[in-house]
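Researcher: Can you fold this with adenosine monophosphate in place?
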Amino acid sequence: MAKYVFGIDLGTTYSCIAYVDETGRATVINNQEGTNTTPSVVNFASPTQVVVGQVAKENAVIDPQNTVSLVKTLMGKSNFAISYNGEDVSPEEASSYILRKLAGDASKLIDAEVKDVVITCPAYFGTAERTATKNAGEIAGLNVIEIISEPTAAALYYGCAKEQGEKTVLVYDLGGGTFDVTVMHVSPGKIEMVCSDGNHELGGKNWDDAVMQYLASEFCSETGFDGDFDEYAQQDLRLKAEKAKQQLSTREKVPVMMDAAGLRARVEITRQTFDEITEALLNESIEKTDAAIALAAERGYTIDEILLVGGSTRMPQVTKILTEKYGMEPKILEPDEAVAKGAAIYALGAYEVKVEQWKEMIESGQADMTDTKTREEAEKYSEPAVVTTNEIPGLRGHRMDEVVTVVTSKSYALQVVRNGEDKCCNMIIKDVLMPGGSLSVTRQFGTVDANQETAELVVFENDFHDEYFDVDTDFILGNATLDLPGNLPAGAPIEVTFTLNKEGILEVTGRDLTTNREIHATMQATAGTIMSKEEVAAAKAKSKGIAVE
Ligand code: AMP
């Protein structure tokens, strides 16, 4: 069977899968329903059957208790997405069904195995959210080559489209549930992130909410109804509001037929009204955009071009405000497909690098092929893909691991005592370049008291650019305990190293320099909402017995 690798845009409201075809073109693969994107909605139809996509979205109206949407907003934050059949379903498991739907449909359509994937996530996702995304892929039975940020994927797709000169581009990505703004420097064969910011509670769904409110109040004044909409009417209204919003992107006004509580009314909404009731939302995105432009300017970059990504950038108000405010007309970059296509290109490049690395390691004897784990890992990257990145114009002659340089997506701090006060000390600061794909920072601290038995390393993940900030337990990522000999004086040196990889996973090492005792922890294993390896394996086993449609 021909070997392909895939890029998956696992979106808040819609998801999409793409691959690089034999001719070297990034192509989206339609689902069984024949559409290029699939609603990220999961309906638990029976204990052995899950329905994903448009059908699930429609089922949400008649079966709201067993349907879950917007699950991406829960990734890494909660271990509960929905309860079905007396069992709690985690966001990772719910997301795994979306991935299985995409992979299953794609596999049928192109008649190839869908196994090796790169999944995208918002740039502001931290360690827990990225790990949760990776775990969702594993539960779905996929080999997740890497997790990359959505704007990186979009910029890669854009940058690879043709060979071009140097440019600083701003990616304005307004999706269904999230907003991301990223500045990147693009030059031939090179994409460097400059900074990124976002609001994970701002997206198309907020625009839908505004339309829902408007339609409901119009309905009430027209029919005289003054009660609450029941759950059925709410869901129905949600679908109609989203549809009306989308139609307003190309029409000046749309009629909406509404029924609730046995009453019917025809309500109209104009583009002008729509723009007015959503102006505050649009302005929130502009504030973040201003901040990103200012931070980029501090680093010596001026924006040459604005790229639009995400379905919600189809709203004419977006192009209008960006053009007015920044004096340049943004480029629309296939709003629904750019991220998945960029991820597909990245997947191909990353896969190629891995195949090459394994080949070298095996040939040089560096890889111990008698070890089962090593052999299994090598097996994953034993077969070259049918197409190489040399077929992609902007990538010819470049290795993917040298093409994309990302910045840290979060700041990481250690709790310390400073001038007698508990403080958080940021060892890794957000928006710093990670050349080679990882960043390691080592600092020395001292024990507080004499004869301490242990030193507790409490790690915080945050968005601050400052070195010190007040302790806030909301930001705790995890902790590790370093055992001490118990006879050290106060101020005994403790060396702490934070190593962040490009997937946003943090490793922490603490060393007592007096006796060289060490503690080594991967933060993904300690934070409360991150699934353990055992939990992932159990979810994977459970998911195998469930059919996805
Ligand atoms: P994404 O997560 O990037 O797929 O974006 C999905 C969001 O884009 C949803 O909120 C959709 O309602 C919205 N969207 C899709 N098409 C349009 C359109 N023509 N006009 C306005 N919003 C749209």
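Model: Folded with adenosine monophosphate in place. The pocket of adenosine monophosphate is lined by residues 11-14, 37, 175-176, 204-205, 242, 245-246, 249, 310-312, 314-315, 336 (CB under 6 Å).
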